[in-house]
Amino acid sequence: MAAQQAASAEPYARPSAWDFWLRRLSVRIANLHIPRHAGAYATALLLAATGLYGVQRGGHWPALNGAMLAFGDEMANATGLQVRAVRLTGNTKLSQPEILEAAGISPTTSVLFFDPAAARTRLTANPWIAEATVQKLYPDQLLVEIVEREAFALWQRDGKIAVIAGDGTVIVDQLDSRFQHLPLVVGRGAEKRVREIVGLMNGRPAIASNVRAAVLVAERRWTLVLKNGIDVRLPDTDVDQALATLTRLDAEKKLMTRDVSMIDLRVPGRVTVRLSEEAFRAHEAALKERQRARRRTGTAT
Predict the structure, then answer these.
(1) Which of 126, 127, 82 is nearest to 105 (CA)?
(2) What is the chain's pLDDT, residue by residue, as a tens digit (301 residues)?
(3) Torsional sign, CA 156, 157, 162, 167
């Protein structure tokens, strides 16, 4: 009796919201109906996820993806969706087999599983190809349109000569005899400014025919090396005006064929010429001879 009175005297403790939530969750779990074979399905899913994780971590995903794609192509080809024709336009430098290989098109490719975006990315990775368009033509054809780059100039860097396009892209990473007639630019950054200097020289045929190479100095200004060894130093700006001056002086005084080693046009309105070693020695000898002649004339008088 005393125990009951003591128990009834204890204050009532109301359960918290957290306790209510846990109790309701436990009741739901206890009453949850688990489908038949759910354990087997969960185990299979876990094993599959583990396997995919292992493939990804081990670097085997490309091989697995290729195998899955090959299987998909085989199934699609069986239903008449195999690529039987490729319409190819725009190629002059690259052959059809080279383009098909670059695009990832093989005899077993299916139209259904072929990825035009991926093919375009692979095609434009080729330095000869500036632009590419790839489309599916159901049920069994592909359309491939490309725009090729043109060989524009030769670029010398680090002692090696490469063939480049007008935008500076290296097309052939070695000297090719087919392109020996192209203008030569030299120096770091020269490939990015090749259109600039070649365009200016093409506007002055009398100069262009005498130029062996255009050298970009300090990525800032050009020096033209003529075929006879003369260096023509051009200014940072108003290069066309400097070339106009050179053209005029050559027409009037045959400056580019004189016995000089350097023509400096860097200062607007002023032309500085340096004689070659041979011409300088001849000039010095002529001065001494004139001085001796004057002394003899003075003595005779």
Answers:
(1) 82
(2) 444 554 445 555 566 666 666 667 566 656 656 566 555 555 555 454 454 444 445 554 455 455 555 655 566 566 777 889 999 999 999 999 999 999 999 888 888 888 999 999 999 999 999 999 999 999 999 999 999 999 999 999 988 999 999 999 999 998 888 899 999 999 999 999 999 999 999 999 999 999 999 999 999 999 999 999 999 999 999 999 999 999 999 999 999 998 889 999 999 889 999 886 664 455 455 555 566 666 667 655 5
(3) negative
